[in-house]
Amino acid sequence: MRYELSHDTIARQVYAKASAESQTRRKIEKYLADKRSMYEERGALLTQDDLEYIAPYLHAINIGDGERALVEESRTAIEKAERKRRRRLRWTIAVLAVSGFVALVAAILAWDNAEWADAQRLAALSKERHQADDVAALLLAAVALQKYPTSQAAEDAALLALQNPPRRKATLRGHRGAVSSVAYRADGAVLASAGLDGTVLRWDPRFGTPIGGPLEGHDGQVHGVAFSPDLAVLASAGDDAIRLWDVNSGTPIGDP
């Protein structure tokens, strides 16, 4: 008796499962039949979601040639659309890459033009100071050549300055140790020096005299100095940080 009940239970489970699968197959078959009707009426192909929905049952359902043709045509259309999308994506990436390259070239050209303009200005200043201050004239020409080595104006200014070799006009003393770097302001009116004693000094190159007191604030040695293009700011690089100074007042600008 116990065996018969167990057998009946298994039979009912098998039947229920078979019945559910049969119902699902009929549901998919009807679904495809309806989709075929829509295709015939409006030319609507199956979507990717439709194909994913019916895929697990295609091997087990009974459908006609029309439905199978619809499935194949839909697959082909989706694959074609995907290939087109990928081509468009590759083309978009290529266009963006070219645009980025063009922007980079434009930036390089702008920087190159700016360097050339600075060299021209420095060369003109060098020629103006040729008679009055031969040292400043030579230094200005040297900076112009450093900025744009192929500048004809900078080369001419350097040759002109070298016609009268500079003579030592003064010895500038003020650092308590070795001097690591010097820089002329672009107009030739101010010379800055960096010392291993941790200070920065400003000088009037015409008279060899200091301008104001030492610029102090670095914690350690100072290794380089440079002026801003607008002549108003002096930058100093030390062991601890880069500091900015107001050229005229000698006061620090902002935090290091």
Task: Write a structural description.
By secondary structure, the protein is α+β, with helices and mostly antiparallel strands. The chain has five helices and eight strands. The strands form two sheets. Strands 1, 2, 3, 4 and 5 form a five-stranded antiparallel beta sheet that branches. Mean pLDDT is 80; it is low at 1-5.
SSE inventory with pairings:
Layout: H1 2-42, H2 48-54, H3 65-128, H4 134-147, H5 152-163, E1 179-184, E2 191-195, E3 199-204, E4 209-210, E5 215-216, E6 222-227, E7 233-238, E8 242-246
Antiparallel strand pairs: 1-2, 2-3, 3-4, 3-5, 6-7, 7-8
Helix pairs in contact: 3-4, 3-5, 4-5
Which keywords apply here?
three-stranded antiparallel beta sheet; alpha+beta; five-stranded antiparallel beta sheet
